[in-house]
Write a structure and sequence with these properties.
It is a single chain. By secondary structure, the protein is an alpha/beta fold. The protein has a single domain, classed as Rossmann fold (3-Layer(aba) Sandwich), CATH 3.40.50.2300. 37% of the residues lie in helices and 21% in strands. A 5-stranded parallel beta sheet has the order 2-1-3-6-7, with helices on both faces. Strands 4-5 form a two-stranded antiparallel ribbon. The longest helix is centred in the N-terminal third of the chain and has 13 residues. The chain is globular and about 35 Å long. The mean pLDDT is 94.
């Protein structure tokens, strides 16, 4: 069991729950999924995660500024998207793994290993 905490920021409740369940199955502790940036900020204020999986687009709102802030304080971030590319990636996220939805187990495991060696 790894036991490290992962923040999931995802506006689709089913995807968020499924991703959190997969993280637990892999031995991580999934924080309560955050459907909005405000909810994510509240969770981060209570507990700093060891890593974060961020949906790049939360109902039309970019999570990139949150990702950049997390990366700046040393929290590794992976971006999840249904698109082929993510535009206007801030420099703090230049090396962040980008996971294309639906996220395969192999992709998820590889990203977590890269983020939390």
């Amino acid at each position: 069991m790894d036991g490290r905490t992962i923040l999931v920021v995802e506006d689709d409740a089913l995807i968020a729950m499924e991703l959190a369940e997969r993280l637990v199955e892999l031995g991580y502790v999934a924080l309560e999924p955050a459907p909005t940036l405000d909810a994510a900020e509240a969770l981060i204020a209570r507990q700093r995660p060891d890593a974060a999986l961020l949906d790049a687009n939360l109902g039309g709102v970019s999570s990139l500024p949150l990702g950049a802030r997390l990366a700046a304080i040393g929290v590794p971030v992976a971006l999840c998207t249904g698109y082929d590319t993510i535009r206007n990636l801030p420099p703090e996220l230049a090396t962040a793994p980008i996971l294309t939805k639906p996220i395969s187990d192999d992709s998820l495991c590889a990203a977590l290993r890269a983020m939390l060696p």
